[in-house]
Structures are given as structure tokens and as C-alpha cells.
Amino acid sequence: MAAYSYWQGASARRPFASGAPPSSADVVVIGGGLLGSCCAYWLARRGRSVLLLERDGVAAGATGRNAGFVVPTTARAYSEVVRQHGPAVARAVRRLAVDGTRMLTRVVVDEGVAADLRSTDLIELALDGEQVRLAKREVELSVADGFPMSWLDRDDLAHVIGTPLDDRIAGGTTVSGALANSVAVTDGIIGAAGRLGAAVHTGVTVNAVRATPSGVRVDTNHGVVHAAQAVIAVNAWSGELVPRLADVIRPVQGQVIATPAMPALFPAGMAAPISDSGVYWQQDPDGSVILGGCRTVTAPPADPTGQVPQPEVHEALLRVLPSLFPALGPVRSAHSWAGAMAFTADGLPVAERVDESVWAVGGFNGHGMPFGAIVADLVAEWVCTGVRGTRLAPFALDRATLGGSFA
Known about the structure:
Helix content is 30%, strand content 27%. It is of the alpha/beta class. The chain folds into two domains: 15-66 and 183-249 and 345-403, 3-Layer(bba) Sandwich (FAD/NAD(P)-binding domain), CATH 3.50.50.60; 120-177 and 250-343, 2-Layer Sandwich (D-Amino Acid Oxidase, Chain A, domain 2). Helix 2 packs parallel to helix 8, helix 2 packs across helix 11 (372-385) and helix 5 (87-110) packs across helix 11 (372-385). The radius of gyration is 21 Å and the shape is globular. The relative contact order is 0.20. It comes from Virgisporangium aliadipatigenens. GO terms for molecular function: oxidoreductase activity.
């Protein structure tokens, strides 16, 4: 079990400046994951002097420790979002995910990012009658609202998946999305921000962010940085810099394994409703299968921001593929890692101005990849114009549904 992820180990990342950052900038962005990197990129494209500060390294948190899925849907089942937030909000958030997936792909292409971002189908299996009913309802609601989604029966799946199916698999849903090396994508976007003039400093711990009469004061382990505005994009660690977010955006540990290279079996990204938190996997072009989930099979760790994999979760992940595809036999792990995601009570992220000149964004519920580029663009527009666009309205901090219980 390793302290770094499959993507972090496989990606050659560009060096960034460390040590004391510049003492001033128009906008300071705190956090070097996908959201922070995209914020720096869009702000620099709008002509702002940008300084991005990252405590560890680029994509050191959830972005670099995920399974590489870019799924253009809501984090929770669409039917659940409709029930909890209403049809209009559900449609708006789903459309944001669809448009965000396209935007991320466009940025990668336009900026010549050398990253493995593959457009492909994403399939979620259904294993029994109730799951089939819910899955078909998900297709019905999605299509009615203009979001393409299809049902695949067992015979359809048998033609897609390169190994025999367990008898429990009745079918599955499919949407078009993407799979990515999330570290390479983020590194490329932050490199593009640098070409536009953004300064990036890693190894900088931000201790406090305070609005002042003249702008924002950012206290770091290397001294003070003064800026006109700041964007906090530290996700699971949001409560450290914005105390009132501590009970709103909460860290949840996720865990992933990578197998040794296997024959080509899974041409699409896959998921299955096994365990309360589900499982999901993709097969990398090198043959490795990257598989995550099962976090609810044991009690959460005392420190959910830690990066130590839990043995019970590891063993549960190893059992997933043999249980669904018996011909595979036992599966072993070549690599295992953990990382902190950030969850909210109602399944939607937060994007809010938390002080006069300070914005905070986070809590994507393990589903940040389709939203990173577009939410960052909308936040950058808000920072530059002072006007929150209507597309960010569902992510307001004062929404009533944030008072619920956490998943």
C-alpha cells in the first residue's frame, strides 16, 4: 500500500517554484487540484495576475487520488436529486455536468495537454430486480429531461465486456463520458495557466485568509501575500480556512486499487451498486484495472483526510471483480492508495463568496471531474465581475438542503 496513487506514480509532472511566493497578486488561488488549477487558468485568461498556492503538490488531494472518471451526471442518482432539490435544480446541475465534461475536453485539446483523456461510454450494472427498476427509472427521467442515457440488457453487456458475466448481472445503464489520467490533466491545465502568466508555488501552507479594507491578506508559512481577491479551493480541508464550512463540507476517505496488467476486458468505464458506496473501475490503456469504492464496509478512519488505506476496504475491493466476473479468478493488487474526498449533506457542492473579497469552492461528493472546469470558469467570472451567474445558484451556501445528514 502506497502513499501515492497510480496516477501520481505514472505521471511526470513539471517542477513548480517552491519557497517564498511573490508578496502580491490580483488574485490568490489556494489549492492545486483540478478546481484550483482551472480557476487559475480562467482568471489568467481574463487578464488577472494570478498566484496559485499549494501545500503539497499539484493534484495531491482528491483530484490525483480518484479513479479517473468524468461522468456527466449528478453525484447522486438523478431521481434522488429531482426528489430532493426539484426538477429545475436537478436539470440545471445535470446540464452543468454535461457542459463541464465538454469544456474540460475542449481545454485539454485547445491547450495541447499531453494527457490520457478518452471519450467513452460509462456503464453502471444492475444486479437484481429492484436495481433494474431503479436503473430503468433513471433512464426514463434522464431521457425525458433531454439527457441521453440507454438501458443495456444482459446480452448487450455480454457483447461489450470481455469476460463471462455472473448470473446476478441483469443489465445496466450507459451514458457517454470520459476517462482520464487526472494528474496529467491537472498538470497540463496548470501549465497552461502558467503560460498565461499565472505563478504557481508548491510547498506553501496557507494558515489564514482574511479580508481587509484594501483586499485580502493571505498568511503563509513563508510570510504574507496581499491580493485584491482570493479563491479557496482546498475541498476536504475547506473548514481549516473557512471555519463555518467545517460542518458543511466534510472529508470522507476514499480508497482505490490498481491491478497488474490484464487482458483487454473493459472498453468502457464501469460501476456497480455493490456496498452502500458502490464500486467503479476502468481499464487503463496499459491493462491495469483501477478500481475504487467499498468505503462503507468498515467504520471510517479517525482522520478521514489521512492517506492510509484500510485493510478491510482493500480486501473488499479485491473481491469485486471475481464476484461479478467469475472466470477471472482471484485478482491481486499491484498498488493501493487512499485519499480525502469532500461531501455535503445534500450531494451538491458549495460555490460561495464567504467574505467581501474571498470565494470558497468545494464539496463535490466524489464527483468533481465533470464540474471542475466549468465551475471554475463561473467562479472566475464572478470574481472578475462581482456578479454571481445564475448557473451557480444551486451551490449557494444558504440553501436549506445543506442542513441534512451526511451520506
